[in-house]
Amino acid sequence: MPALRVELRPARALAAGTMLVHAAGAAAILLVMPGAPGIGVAVLLLALGAAAAWERALLRGTHSPRVVELEPDGTLRVLLGAGQRATGRAAARCHVGPWWILIPLGAPRRMALLTRDMLGAEDFRRLRIWALWGRVPTPGRTARAG
């Protein structure tokens, strides 16, 4: 039985940020490449942003993470949209920030990006501790001030 099992929610803030960055890139392209070629590249860049937001932030793609399971031995399993499972381990390659966790999964160059709004605050805290320290924290335990 997993120590932690979490169903992920779509990250609307990440989707909006992804689209905003791609829209800024499209605007920059239009400034330096006027005319039909610039419009074509800008439209393609916006389409790429929409595809990235759909797949990674809104969790609608077949390779999008849907469920995260953290095992007692420290193994992380991610259930993907197509029913596939990918595994990861806490390692030096995990990247953790205050709003996100980037976890390498079994295959080379395959990563899972989990943001704070994809799961509850306590579950996000537990995953951050796992990514930083390689341990599964006990639910409900907090450090006592001294």
Any overview of this molecule?
This protein has three helices and seven strands; from the N terminus they run βααββββββα. With 146 residues, the chain is of the alpha+beta class. The strands form two sheets. It has a four-stranded antiparallel β-sheet with strand order 1-2-3-4, covered by helices on one side. The longest helix is centred in the N-terminal third of the chain and has 22 residues, at 36-57. The radius of gyration is 18 Å and the shape is elongated.
Number of helices: 3
**Taking all residues together, what is the mean pLDDT?**
85
Global Rg: 18 Å
Q: Please provide the ordered H/E string of secondary-structure elements.
A: EHHEEEEEEH
DSSP strand (E) fraction?
A: 15-25%
Q: Would you tell me the structural class of the helices and strands?
A: alpha+beta
Spans where pLDDT lies below 50 across 5 or more residues:
none
Summarize the main sheet.
Answer: 4 strands, antiparallel
Strand order of the largest sheet: 1-2-3-4
How far apart are the termini? Answer: 34 Å
Helix content: 25-40%
Shape: elongated
Number of strands: 7
Number of domains: 2
